[in-house]
Amino acid sequence: MPSSPRDAAVARPRHRWVVELLLVAVVVHSVVLALWLAPSSPLRDAAGDGRLASYVNPYFQQGRDVVGVGAERVDVSFSIRARVAPDGGGRSRATQWIDLTRLDDKAGRHDLTVGRVRLIARRLAANLDLALADLDEAQRAVVRGLTANELPSVVKVALEKAGGRPAAVQVFQAYDQMATQFTSLYAQSRWDGRVVQVQFRVGRRTVPPFAERGTASLDDVAVSHLSFGWRRTVRGPLEARETFDSYVKKR
Amino acid sequence: MIERAVGWLTGEKHSTYGLSVTRMILGFIVASQLAVNWPDRHYTWGDGSRWTEEVLAGRGWPSFLGLFSQSGGIGFDLAYLATILFGVLMMLGLYTRASSFMTLLLWVSLYVSNPFVGSGGDAILRMVLLYMCFTDAGRHWSLDARLRGRRGEVAGLVPAWMSNTLHNLATILIVHQIVMVYLASAFWKLQSAVWKDGTAVYYPLQTDAYSPWSDVLHPLYASSAVIAGATYTAVLLQLFFPVFLLYRPTRFLALIAITGMHLGIGLLMGIMYFSLVMIAVDMILVSDGSWVRAQSWVQGRWRAWRPREKSPGTAP
């Protein structure tokens, strides 16, 4: 006869069966997560990236940033400008570029409780950079030549015709449209007048090699800009414009 | 062996003190993160983040997590304040399981509304909160424990063996998550040339994204001894952390070293939030016995200090 609650639970077959089932589920779950986080290996390859992703996403989703691989050596920045027409009418003029990432860095210097808002411009730049890198050279040439009058559907066809993977085109267009919306909202709050067109660019600088640490720093490295053509302004919903107004005006 | 494992799982709840500490720190992190971001909340997660909808659609999050992305104005503010409130309740341990669940639900809803402001800490926080809902994280150092002491134990909805099993399995999953983060990180690093030649830490510290103190600390970052020391320490600590956990003497050293590493990363690289989440979840690894001894020590110090405080007329 069982002498304690533990013995009682273990002794009852139905309880034991439930506990064993839960234990197996936990082991399987743990193995899948371990494989997902692990670097490439024959075991991980056998499980298949797609199969692992279908289990992990979205609830147990965790990327390489979780394991903090962290040897980033490229510094990216996001700059915007606009063509603004006076409110009373007249010809539009292009504004100066403003580097939003630099503004974020300045605000976050020596701050241990940096607001998440400071991440937005840099993340947008990093994702655009990756999306552009996934396109092939012919497609990147199409991107550089884009004008404000070209609709996304036309751009899609042009990019697909230039070659490369259709999935890469889809990802690029998604980030391109987001960047256009973000830039439009920011520009409308930043500059007085009617914002007719907007443009954004991603700046890239690679950290000098370790051997040159005594003589060179990142500030000595020239920024190479990845240019995206002019885009027609997306006005955006009123609530979004008001939110951007209150944020941009206090910067 | 299976017999012993089943007995261990069903008999009693393990790591209850460590979980209580983790609960308190995670509750504090949620509440303080949202308080820090309060001035820019609409721009970060509210109406100002609608431009991210292109990627939101592709993430596969269910619609019940769309609370923040579908509400604006006062509704958004109320949900935001509710998240802070549940974070505080979780920290204090009042209705712990319910407040942990609500914190998880609201925090994930907020997290999914703008994928451009997430961090590695969010994924770990999300998963630990999910597992924590199955644990008895309010067993100690909580208002629930105080109420229980006054009113007595209330019978649970599930039998004790089931409650113990769920608690212990969830605790195993949290520990597994921590160990996997360290191990996987070490394995990734070992595949990279810059980690092997001892220069990896130099690169992020040169970028604007991870160097909020570079103007002050640049000479330190240029020192090859400092860089190599930091690089190899990070890899070795992460690689051998699970091994160090097996023995009590090395466990303490490993926890102190890894907490120091996280504080260093958090302070020097400006990612304090990620570091705090890791420190919080590492607290589960401190044994219940150690927490009890620490509590007795603090109580002893407190008792020794209090009488002196109460007798101002005593001659020195």
List keywords for this structure.
heterodimer, A: 251 residues, alpha+beta, six-stranded antiparallel β-sheet, 49% helix, globular, B: 316 residues, mainly alpha, 17 helices, 72% helix
Enumerate the spans of chain A where pLDDT stays under 50 for 5 or more consecutive residues. none
User: How far apart lie the N and C ends of chain B?
Assistant: 63 Å
Radius of gyration of chain A: 25 Å
Strand content of chain A: 5-15%
Arithmetic mean of pLDDT of chain A? 88
Count of DSSP-assigned helices of chain B: 17
Classify the secondary structure makeup of chain B into a structural class: mainly alpha
Number of strands of chain B: 0
Question: How many domains, in number, for the residues of chain A?
Answer: 2
Number of strands of chain A: 6
Cα shape of chain A: globular
Overview of this protein structure:
The complex is a heterodimer of chains A (251) and B (316). Chain A is α+β, with helices and mostly antiparallel strands and 251 residues long. Chain A contains ten helices and six strands, in the order ααααβββαααααβββα. In chain A, strands 1, 2, 3, 4, 5 and 6 form a six-stranded antiparallel beta sheet that branches. In chain A, β1 (74-85) and β2 form a beta hairpin. Chain B is an all-alpha fold and 316 residues long. Chain B has a domain at 16-146 and 157-178. Helix content of chain B is 72%, strand content 0%. Chain B contains 17 helices and no strands. Chain B has helices at residues 2-11, 16-36, 41-44, 53-56, 67-70, 73-92, 96-113, 120-132, 143-151, 160-190, 193-196, 202-206, 214-221, 224-244, 248-269, 272-282, 288-310. In chain B, α1 (2-11) packs across α10 (160-190), α7 packs antiparallel against α8 and α8 runs parallel beside α16 (272-282). The longest helix of chain B has 31 residues, at 160-190. Chain B is globular, with a radius of gyration of 22 Å. The mean pLDDT of chain B is 91. Chains A and B meet through α1, α2, β1, α5 and α6 of A and α1, α3, α8, α10 and α12 of B.
